[in-house]
Amino acid sequence: MGPRIGPVGEEPRMSDKDTKAMMSTEDIPQGKASPNSQDLQRSVFYSIKFFVLCHSLLQLAQLMISGYLKSSISTVEKRFGLSSQTSGLLAAFNEVGNTALIVFVSYFGSRVHRPRLIGYGAVLVALAGLLMSLPHFISEPYRYDRASPVDMPQDFEASLCQSKTLVPDPTPAPSNSSCSSYTETQHLAVVGIMFTAQTLLGMGGVPIQPFGISYIDDFAHNSNSPLYLGILFAVTMMGPGMAYGLGGLMLRLYVDIDRMPEGGISLTSKDPRWVGAWWLGFLISAGAVALAAIPYFFFPREMPKEKHELRFWRKVLTVSDSPVSKGEDSPSEQSLREPLEKQDGLVQIAPDLTVIQFIKVFPRVLLRTLRHPIFLLVVLSQVCMSSMVAGMATFLPKFLERQFSVTASYANLLIGGLTIPSAIIGIVVGGMLVKRLHLGPMRCGALCLLGALFCLLLSLPLFFMGCPTHRIAGITHEPGNLPGLEQFPACRGNCSCPLDDFNPICDPSTHVEYLTPCQAGCTSRVVQEALDKSQVFYANCSCVVGGGPVPAGSCDSACSHLVLPFMFLVSLGAALASLTHTPSFMLILRGVKKEDKTLAVGIQFMLLRVLAWMPSPVIHGSAIDTTCVYWAQSCGRRAVCRYYDHDLLRNRFVGLQFFFKTGSLACFALILAILRQQDKEERTQVTVSIPGLQQQQPLVSGPEKKPEEFRA
């Protein structure tokens, strides 16, 4: 960590290291005298270990609330009538707020009260979580059968076949009594609230990780800092998995669990109209963030630097042959420290700059860094990988729901229990391979290439693992006509069926699905009561052989068992993709000049947000929308998609993943080719000057490593 540089006009001040060294005798912030050593020992807020514990819990809760929307994306779509493109844009707005403030946070560095600013950011995250759940409370109760009048029980007579002599013919016009200016205004307000909440969620998360990491690194013992940061990241990596697990639990509950209609509901979680309690997860995770934020308002701006090395950690370093025991930075330590160094590194590009001067000089340094071929190719490969991860994290639950006809709860549990742990294992294994095998740049490039190659190969079987499209009367056979008006016209010719109703039933003998009982010509409804739930059947159906009864809900899929092999391949591919994380990161650290290292990491994270995490969910959502075969209509506008072409959905979703993986593989191949060419040139030079010195220096070598090995 270099010295902090103040703005122009600020008088010279003592460096952070000198300040920390004199904390026992000098004044602490806010003009209060530093407490004596006994007071420091009694106060838990002067313990860096307690700060590590608090920050681990805070980042865990923050990542949980940030990832929770992805676990309930399909539920939010159904509840508020959103397309996948809109929901993808909603998920991307988290990164918009984050990217908007990251440069300013980088400029201010440690000039602020870091713990207190972390607390303010956490409070903003908690408020954003509460705001995200607000649409549930200001919206009317969810009506899964919109055709039912207010005074009629849902899912009853409105969906049945009624004679045209009693009910006038439905008109194709999408206007109905429920469409009003108030309804549309309320819809726009709900969507606007969610977009605002996502933006605030990203803004609140900006100071949490960088300030927390730098605070730990400043006041922990030099030998203990890698251990503390390793514990921090190990705990926080469980956040996304817990988000999917929380989503799996919450979506089992009905959305209006706080205002259930009289007589209950006749839906089950397998019904396509089921909407889970998506809002409850935001309340729980927001409460967790708020509780985790409390201690930060009691931590001091600076605390005495930790004096003693942990005993068991000293033994580990003694028996280990890692560079840490030799007083050098290991790859793991450097990879942990770089994210915090990038925050101050942007300030260090030019001393004594004002904010305006800093913003003016930043583009020139950015272009200089991007001209480096290894850096540019590594960042492009990570952009491709991150685009793949962002799209999968956002829409994989929905894909599993639609493709394999599983519930949203089960899809989230599969992702949280299989894919996320596999990715964590891949990151850990990649770091261990780099450290224990002392991999050089060539071998790191080869490891990245192999990981990307096998990840790509595992994607090929996914194109063929899926379920066929449901047979829906009036849609799959005659997709160009109005639903139900051309398929089987004679059998229900005397029925007047609402065009905007959705209450699917399944004919088990033919596996044909009807949008409503009216579409099947059903005139009666039967409810079979059971101990724990009730089953709805429809009878006297003129379009069904034998007249029924037929069960309510969509037809069961004959290939739902393929979801487990599919998820096994996806999880294995995630582990192999994560294997490239640490080696590619080390290529950046060793591939640029020392003075540009911290800036390069900052640029890397910024480009990943702008080029991958922001556009990828929108791209995936748009691709998913193109596979829809039947859209629900709401007040004349296209709302949520009811049915997809499964083959087209699988080919386009997996195809996008395959495209990004191919781009990453191509970048790693070019990196390896450049490294081989540079290695060949350097071997030739070394052979001419000092024969015999042709051994490649490992990535974990000391400061004597020269960046010229990566010259263009």
Automatic annotation (TrEMBL):
Region (Disordered): 1-37
Localization in the cell: Cell membrane
InterPro entries for this protein: Kazal_dom (IPR002350), MFS_trans_sf (IPR036259), OATP (IPR004156)
Top-level taxon of origin: Eukaryota
Occurrences of domain Kazal-like (ranges): 485-545
CC per GO annotation: apical plasma membrane; basolateral plasma membrane
Family assignment from sequence similarity: Belongs to the organo anion transporter (TC 2.A.60) family.
Protein's recorded name: Solute carrier organic anion transporter family member
Organism of origin: Acinonyx jubatus
Lineage: Eukaryota, Metazoa, Chordata, Craniata, Vertebrata
